[in-house]
Amino acid sequence: MRVLLVEDNVELVSLLKRGLAQSGFDTDSVGTATDAAHVLSTMRYAAIVLDLGLPDDDGLTVLREIRRRGDSTPVLVLTARDGVSDRVTGLREGADDYMAKPFAMEELIARLHALLRRPGNLLGKRLSCGNVELDTEGRQVLVNGALRAFPARETAVLEILLRRSGNVAPKRLFEDHLFGLSGDVGSNAVEVYVHRLRKMLSDSGASVKIHTVRGVGYILADEKAASETAR
Ligand code: CA
Predict the structure, then answer these.
(1) Are 52 and 58 in contact (CB under 8 A)?
(2) Which of 51, 70, 160, 190 is the most exposed place for a label (fewest CB within 10 A)?
(3) Residues 73 and 97 both lie in one domain
C-alpha cells in the first residue's frame, strides 16, 4: 500500500519512510503544499500523512482542496500544533485522525492501519454494525430497519464508534467531535453522551453494545456476533 508523506522536515521524512517501510508501506514524499497538490491531482494513495506547517502554505489548504474534489483518501494530520482548536479545525476540514509532534512511530503506524481498516472511508457512506445502521449524510439512525430519533451529539458519538469498526476509539476523538459541535462541553461530557447513547441503543433493541476500555476510550461490539462465535 502506498502512502503519501507531505512533510518538509527532511530528517523526519527519512525517519517516517524507514518506519513505514518496516511496516510494509511504500511511500512517496513531497515537501511543499504545491508539490502535494500537483502529485494528488494525478495519483491516488491509500492514505496521506500531512504536516500542517509547510514552507509555502498551510497543510490545511491541501486537505481542503482534496476534500472539495470529493477525494475521500484517509488523511492523518501530523503537526507541531496540538491545541484543541487546531485539532478541531483539522478534523472539521476533513482530516481522519490527528497526531501531535513529537510522536511515537509505533502509534503512527497503528493509527494508519486503523484508518485503512475503516469501512466508512467514503463520504456519505452508510455505516453499520449488527442491526444498527447510520446514514452519515442524512444523519439517520436505523435499528433493525426502523428509523430512530437520536439527538445530534449521540449520533456523532455513534458515528465515531462505527467508523472505528471494532477498534477502540480514543476518548480524545470524541472530545474533538463534541467540542466541534459546541464550545461549552464539560469535562465529563463524553461519558454523559456515551451513557445516553448506550441507553438509546438498548431501548431500541440494538444488537450492539458500547464497551469502556478504561483509560483509553470506547469500542462498539455486536453482541449477537460475539455470542455466535463463542458457541
Ligand atoms: Ca513542517
Answers:
(1) yes
(2) 70
(3) yes
